[in-house]
């Protein structure tokens, strides 16, 4: 039986951001931009959505005169990501 | 993604080894020259500048980074070096009260930290250099006089500077 996919994670860019953040302790906006090759505006919107859902924690600070946005996945985000992976397995016939 | 993280790690982890490695080499050569020329025990106070200069250069170079990512492995390596760093600093202060073979103790501690770093990042050249560094802790017992400072310099160069350059080179090559 197919499990329902989390609509918030079932988006290429949001899933990409989550997969980056789950593999590191924290990463800044520029690192995410480089890895996803997405536009600044698009990343900002998706980070906001993930942050509102409580999946990531966004901290805005300064590095010298520049602003720096550092993102970190939350325990809720890790759980949602794991649940998403389990759900997608049912579509691939790899349900355990 | 995991491979990218490893590439990042390789290029970033080389920097602290190079900074602290070169500073230690320069300071130990300076201590040797001062000891030889002045024959004064106070020349050893120069050792205390290593953590200060290392911390300063780490701060300056960290500020220049534009992109920032901290991996879990970064965190573990930081814990290892912070622990060893604190222990070496505290140990060095005991030199005012105790008479121990501090060069041997430093080589042992730094050798263990380098070996652990190599094991954590799974990078054989660092493991190898770390083991050489750890084993070299017997040398200050074998050599007498100020020459053991030079032996210490060579051991630091092998266990910190060489793996640091290898990591930097690999990091740059992979990121091209």
Written account of the structure:
The complex is a heterodimer of chains A (96) and B (176). With 96 residues, chain A is of the alpha+beta class. Chain A has a single domain (12-92), classed as Winged helix-like DNA-binding domain superfamily/Winged helix DNA-binding domain (Arc Repressor Mutant, subunit A), CATH 1.10.10. Chain A is built from four helices and three strands, in the order H-E-H-H-E-E-H. In chain A, strand 2 (56-63) and strand 3 (66-73) form a beta hairpin. Chain A is elongated and about 55 Å long. The mean pLDDT of chain A is 90. Chain B has one domain (2-175). The longest helix of chain B is centred in the first third of the chain and has 37 residues, at 2-38. The chains are: A alpha+beta (96), B mainly alpha (176). At the A-B interface, helix 1, strand 1 and helix 2 of A face helix 1, strand 1 and helix 3 of B. Strand 1 of chain A pairs antiparallel with strand 1 of chain B.
Keywords:
heterodimer, A: 96 residues, alpha+beta, Arc Repressor Mutant, subunit A, 3-stranded antiparallel beta sheet, 3 strands, 53% helix, B: 176 residues, mainly alpha, 7 helices, 79% helix, 1% strand, globular
Compute the separation of the termini of chain A in Å. Answer: 12 Å
Rg of chain A, Å, rounded: 14 Å
Total tally of structural domains of chain A: 1
Mean pLDDT value of chain A: 90
**Total E-strand runs of chain B:** 1
Judged by helices, strands and strand pairing, the structural class of chain B is mainly alpha
Domain unit count of chain B: 1
Major sheet size, sense and barrel closure of chain B: none
Please give the count of helices of chain A.
Answer: 4
- Low-pLDDT stretches of chain A are none
* The CATH architecture of chain A: Orthogonal Bundle
Elements of chain B, N to C (H/E): HHEHHHHH
Net shape of chain A: elongated
How would you name the CATH homologous superfamily of chain A? Winged helix-like DNA-binding domain superfamily/Winged helix DNA-binding domain
How would you state the average pLDDT of chain B, rounded?
Answer: 84
Q: Helix coverage percent of residues of chain A?
A: 40-55%
